[in-house]
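Our preliminary data section would be incomplete without showing what the modeling component actually yields. Below, a chain of 468 amino acids is followed by its predicted structure, encoded as tokens that our downstream tools consume directly.
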Amino acid sequence: MTASANSMARTPVADALTAQAPVADIRICGWVRTRRDAKGFSFLEINDGSCLANIQCIVDETLPAYAVIKDVNTGAAVEVRGALVESPGKGQKWELRAATLTLLGGADAETYPLQKKRHSDEFLRTIAHLRARTNKFGAAFRIRSEAAYAIHEFFRERGFFHVHTPILTGSDCEGAGEMFRVTTLPASGSAVPPSGNRFEADFFGKECNLTVSGQLEAEALAMGLGKVYTFGPTFRAENSNTARHAAEFWMIEPEFAFADLTDDMELAEAMTRTVVARVLERCAADIELFDRFVDNGLVDRLRTIADQPFARVSYREAIELLKASGKKFDYPVSFGLDLQTEHERFLAEEHFGKPVIVYNYPKSIKAFYMRLNDNNETVAAMDVLVPRIGELIGGSQREERLDVLEARIREMGQNPDDYWWYLDLRRFGSVPHAGFGLGFERLLMLLTGIANIRDVVPFPRTPGNLEF
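Predicted structure:
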């Protein structure tokens, strides 16, 4: 029998293991985790990636194709057709009694790198094309999928439209300058034209970069659609090899009109709590794996996030709490300095013991588009800080006043002419509006307890690493 000739639909292992009754004829496809031979038959543990658990398959030597069993090693892909029956063994409700066994793709026992032992995360990064077959990374990427789905559900339920914003951009939303340049010019030997514009001969006739944020374009769409969100890849050329930074990452960025800072904080809290609750419910076995082997106490921490309202303090109050803590920090604490991860984690983990939203930051440490408060010292910005991660979400009420926005752009050393269309939104029917950015990978680190961003991204892009 060949797979192409088999018209019976494949049953995912997850569905087989949760069946309500025996099934006389079922087809399972997957990869062999282990093979154990006994007198007259063999036991195969098969996993297809649909769930954490394997299904046990018993292959009797009376099968016509039993001779192929010698080639069914760990890592091999097989198709098994047979009966799903109650298992006499402990810890499993069902097992598969094979009627036919087909080897779809062999795996050399001597060179297959995923053996039945614990491999280090560092080693598994070198074989990222195979690590989804491990328990840990299979669970991580299933959680990633479920979290993405929950985010789309959340915004759809609240009337937000999913929009797509450009990846190629001529704007620097953050003003940090750490952007990847995109060019069709030769790597060397291109002369500067008489106009002085060295990008004149380039594809767009001006400097082009990979986006660090879709926020500015999302604001424009919110000014016509009311409530929108983006969910896409963003890029930052920050030469950092920390466990928290990657060159390519995914951002969720809602923007909504007729909204202020309070609306923004409420949306960010509701989204976080809703997504955590849904992942806890839908990925219980995968979350339990991380609680047992990666981050003991994870489940309780996630339940606290899902069940309890977040704390809220102003930036000024947060600074005073940090000063009064008696704790010695590596970085100084004073008004006007940005909060570091150690400060954020102290507030979320030790002082409040749950997520906290810090708002009204000094304008000197925030971006040009954040609304200037009446004191001319702070902006209507907010950050959501969570245990073990620090900053999870950053957002603000956006500056809707044309004259103030132009002045802020100049203060940041940028040219208002480059943002003519963004300023037009303030010229033609400007309204109060707000939004935030959620780093998807940081949310996944929160959900799994994984400490390194490289291990929640299937194929991480970091300085010096462009494999796969």
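The two ends are 34 Å apart (CA to CA). Residues 1-5 have pLDDT under 50 and may be disordered. Preliminary results of this kind motivate Aim 1 of the renewal.
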